Amino acid sequence: MKPSTIITAALSIVFAISLGVATRVLNPSENVNALWLVLAAACFFVVIYRLYGAFIAKKVLGLDDSRPTPAIRFSDGRDFHATHPLVLFGHHFAAIAGAGPLIGPVLAAQFGYLPGFLWILIGAAFGGAVHDIVILAASVRMDGCSLAEIARKEVGPLTGFTVALAILFIIIVALGGLGMAVVNALYKSPWGSFTIFATMPIALVMGQWLHRWRRGAGGAVWEVTLFGVIMLVLAVMGGRFIEGSFLEGVFSLDKTTLVWVLALYGFSASVLPVWMLLCPRDYLSTYMKIGTVLLLVAGVLVMAPEIRMPRITAFASGGGPVIPGGIFPFMFITIACGAVSGFHSLIASGTTPKMLRKEGDILPIGFGAMLAEGFVAVIAIIAATVLMPGDYFAINTTLSFDALGRMGFAPQNINELSRTVGVDVAGRPGGAVSLAVGMAYIFSGLPGMKRLMPYWYNFALMFEALFILTTVDTGTRVARFIVQDLGGYAYRPLSKTNWMPGAFFASAVVVGAWALLVSSGSVATIWPMFGVANQLLAAIALCIGTTVLIRMGKVKYIWVTLAPMLFMFTMTLVASWKLLWIFLDKAAIAPDASARFSFRLDAALVVVMALLAIIAVADSAVKWKGMLSKGFVKEDAA
């Protein structure tokens, strides 16, 4: 028996035992320790990568290193650029792991720790990772095409145009919401702003180092990695001393200034060559992300904290103060990134396929990065649920303590937590603050760290901003490609991504749209339905993936994409229907005409998104029927 087989079997046994304890099937009378969740997730994801990921790569997709990738065939040093797999993994992971794996699990903790934990494991393994690797492989095989282009070529012009509209709508709303989260996190935060801004010149130096000064040199990647990590650590440490210094006024920015700075960065990352800013900054950010997550894991190992939230709360069927609906279907749209996210298809068919050196890299980057994100989501749900339930709800709602007490969740340590971090954390909904408090609580359990909890709290907020910003830059570039693709119908040269006037124009349109949402704050009325839109896009992407597999002659394997597609499509349509009536009910009792208009607009947008998804899936189903009736077995068409 091979050593790898023995290791896989051992990890499977450890996973089974850990899951039994985490679900309280084993030792039901004892409180669950967070260690069991970490152990179960780590073992499960390793086994899934080793078995299911390898199966999809070899049997379903037939990845072949001898087939030249678009980065090799169309190398232009700007959009198509063969990139070291470590650097590209960093870029891809940073791009897909935005706010979702941090905020979604925290909000879903309202239902208890177990539903979200199980959905992350199952969703990431059999939904999200499949979704990401199939779309990435399809885009690589089709010259780095976007998801909309793949839909148009594989299904038809109707689905292609529908998908393009859906993607553009979703990505603008997403970037607006994510941009607002960055602005709120860095508002009047000189420490956070200094560290985040410092990553930009560091990334520019890294890009020049790899592409010009040491291009092709052995060990260049490790040199630039060492440089980047050292500089990043210095930036984090130095940011602490900005407040109170003569530089405080420079980095303590108001929201309007932050919007302009963010817009300028998004525009620059969209039009500059990928090797110059976007890729090295995302690669650099990944080290901070992974380092922080590993530090959190170390904190869990040292503290061995108990999970305070019940396994399943009384809000499982609805009526909760954080999320209006019940587990079915609202948990499946609340936890998107970290389980299944349509936004990932934009990255997997956007920047990443244009930078792959060989097809063999698709498995670790497409499948592996999604599992890594799932592990981040598990850590986030632990950070939220180690807090006392009453304190969690006190932070994530604006309800009075008495009202929470009547619901059975009286706050217990909220005042002490506020004193410890130096900020009144009660009544700060949205998930970010409770996550930061939970992270700071875990960090403070490390030896000698108890007195540094205020710093850990600010560090956690900065960490969240860094996580989100890497999605903003890549998302802006992907949206630029989509605008150019759609604009090509009106003016042909605009569809050429290497035509600089078109790139500048499309980038300005995208940045202007999401910056307007951030500056006006109107995204707050649209954000609740983003979860529905994002998961409908995931269903559409899995639908397109199924079409690709049929064209490849892999009909016997279409269950790989078809099963998660049907689940996501069903759950999200049900959520759309429920959310529609929630918005209409709110519009009926809105206090003024502006609020009524906002809620009705939300309702209309949910309907539009659902209709776009129905059209795309129905058109694809007709296409499947035609191909299967003709015995379509065209090999390697993807």
Compact summary:
This protein has helices at 3-22, 34-60, 70-73, 85-96, 100-108, 113-141, 147-154, 157-186, 190-213, 220-239, 248-251, 255-271, 278-303, 327-334, 343-348, 362-385, 389-396, 401-406, 414-421, 432-443, 453-487, 500-520, 523-526, 530-551, 559-588, 593-629. With 638 residues, it is an all-alpha fold. It is globular, with a radius of gyration of 23 Å.
Helix-strand topology string: HHHHHHHHHHHHHHHHHHHHHHHHHH
Helix content: over 70%
- How far apart the termini lie comes to 36 Å
The gyration radius over C-alpha positions equals: 23 Å
Mean pLDDT: 86
SS-derived structural category = mainly alpha
Please give the number of β-strands: 0
> How many H/I helical runs?
26
Low-confidence stretches: none
| Global outline | globular
Largest sheet data: none
**β-strand amount:** under 5%
Keywords:
single chain, globular, 71% helix, mainly alpha, 638 residues
What does it look like?
With 638 residues, this protein is mainly α. The protein contains 26 helices and no strands. Helix 9 crosses helix 13 and helix 13 packs antiparallel against helix 21. The relative contact order is 0.16. The model has no long low-confidence stretch (mean pLDDT 86).
